[in-house]
Amino acid sequence: EVCEFICEAHKKFTASMVDTIDILHFENWWGKFYKRHAISLESQSGSIPRSHKQHFLVCNFIKFKYSSNMKGLVVTRPFIGNVVITNTFDLKEYKTQMVTLSTRNAYDGPRPLKINKIEAYLKRTMQYIPAERKAYYENIIKNWRKY
């Protein structure tokens, strides 16, 4: 539903559902597209001492603003209501144009859960089953390996 809304909103957008299996080895490829260490554009000047330069650290900011008109730029604020103090960070590496996700799967096929884990999860969910339906689900848990 969300993808349809985005696709109908503007033809410049490409919407695709991203699943966990689509993001492979993030730590290996993100450096090709994004800077490892970014300093705010406001503090990049050579006249500003090194100790006063603002580095991009997610924990230092509360509000992040991104616009598709300025790809790669993130405007941050240390407080939600603050309009005076802003820092703009250029996170995009200029070597590349667009981030692309890997097209190969993480695994060749489905990865089974351990039987002990499945049984533990099934037993834990029983506390949420209404009393009038417990007998039905207890029978499934008791005989689930036969299915």
Characterization of the model:
This protein folds into 2 domains: 2-90, no CATH class; 115-146. The protein is 25% helix and 9% strand. The protein contains 4 helices and 3 strands; from the N terminus they run ααβββαα. A 3-stranded antiparallel sheet has the order 1-2-3, with no helix packed on it. The longest helix is centred in the C-terminal third of the chain and has 11 residues, at 115-125. It is elongated, with a radius of gyration of 24 Å. It starts with a helix and ends with a helix. The model has no long low-confidence stretch (mean pLDDT 78).
Question: Summarize this, please?
Answer:
With 147 residues, the protein is α+β, with helices and mostly antiparallel strands. 25% of the residues lie in helices and 9% in strands.
